[in-house]
Known about the structure:
Helix content: under 10%
Largest sheet: 6 strands, antiparallel, barrel
Number of strands: 13
Radius of gyration: 21 Å
Shape: elongated
Order of helices and strands: EEEEEEEEEEEEEH
Strand order of the largest sheet: 1-2-3-6-5-4
Amino acid sequence: MQDNILRDSLVTHIYLTYSELGKKQVHKLKLRFIDVKQAYFSAEAPVNFIKPKRKTPAEIKVYTVDGVYRTEIFINDAQLNVAEVLFEVSIPKMWEFIQMRNSSRNRIALPVHIKYNDGYEINTTTHDIALGGFAFYLKDTINSIYEKLPAIVTLELPQSCWLKNPSCKIYTETNFVRKRLEENDEEHFQQYLYSYKFINMTKEAEESLKDLLLQRFD
């Protein structure tokens, strides 16, 4: 791991995680300045921000296109401005590389529209898709009544699938399966992961979905 990973062009996200007053805190960072002893980051100011004590132990994760690098550091100082928090942290001496994990779920971001019989609609983007269903994140929960009702889902396909599916969409029934409050994924921390399953999918829709998954992950 090169010493200047924080400056590397392959970096996509940087997250800082620590505990304060018994509560886990996660911040998405932007690098502002770095020298031989410390680095300075900014983060969007959260509601009810709790300033960490000096020398608070923390973890930094640096996401790149080929994996994740993590290390343990100390927060030397934190200052709250009007719209952002400025962090000063110690420069890590060692990094641990974490290979991107394999999963039976396929990480595909597609526009998804869910509509219930009473007119209630959910418009969002998928987090992952499989032959049996899909999942997405929301910042707020859905009324629990919709966890018991069927709905119609429409997935908008990428242009690579249009030749075999001129409608450019997969349209089928769907049902809620489960929800989970995210505590481990820094990018979606404190968001709700919803899982839905496909129901009564037509042969044509199933073939379009298989074609999409093969294109992306075969």
